[in-house]
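User: Run a structure prediction on this.
Assistant: Running it now.
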Amino acid sequence: MERKILKEKIGRMTEGVLAEATDMTLWLFAYFAAGSMNFSRSTWQNRVAADDFISKINYETIKNSLEKLRRKGYVKRTGRKKAWPEITLAGRKRLESVLPDYDEKRLWDGKIYLLTYDIPEKRRQDREILRRYARKLGMGMLLESVWITPYNPHEILAEYISEKHLAGVIIVADIGKDGAIGEEDLRSLVERVYELDRLNDLYREYIKNITSGGGMSPLQRQFGFLSILSRDPQLPWDLLPDNWQGNKAYRLYKETLNKSLLDMRSHTE
């Protein structure tokens, strides 16, 4: 029960981006290590006093999570007294897998791909897994068994199809660079399926909160952005609305991150 409550609490604190105490701790180590901060109860208490966001985290919870991270090989001791643990390559890969990353390039071949499938009812579990997988890959559901994506899914789906023996019941096709479905052009189709207006409103609200002060701590500002980014399929630039707010929100997020690190460094000097 306590574990469930802790998971829910961390999920609320991080806007649903992180849920596990170990992942939260791993992120905190990466964040604070950048500020060259010592890992001790006194410095921890001084730091959390300045940030209501992390003041809700129990110091003992962090210490317990640290031991789990060490056992998993995500962090290691540095040999320096009271120094923050060093995050290993495995730890960095873990962070990359749980934190959304903003793609500034978004290379695109100009095509929209259709994923269709006809998985029989007796294999309903495989069908549900495929749907969750499609969402994780950033696909948008056009119809019950039809999904779209601007990024070629052939290679990433090949292993899944082979593993589940679904050859012949899953089909991937593209509708070309100037394709359309019915009377709807590509941009209109993408805006509707991916609900870009709603997503744009979330970015706009985030920008408003940042620029107006909003009563948010630096860490809340960071997880506020990451929460929206975790829902963003990060579509190619050519398919986004002309008034897209994602870039401005990202710039404010980076400014907040850089300022937080500078504040931490000055705090420890």
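The chain has twelve helices and eight strands.
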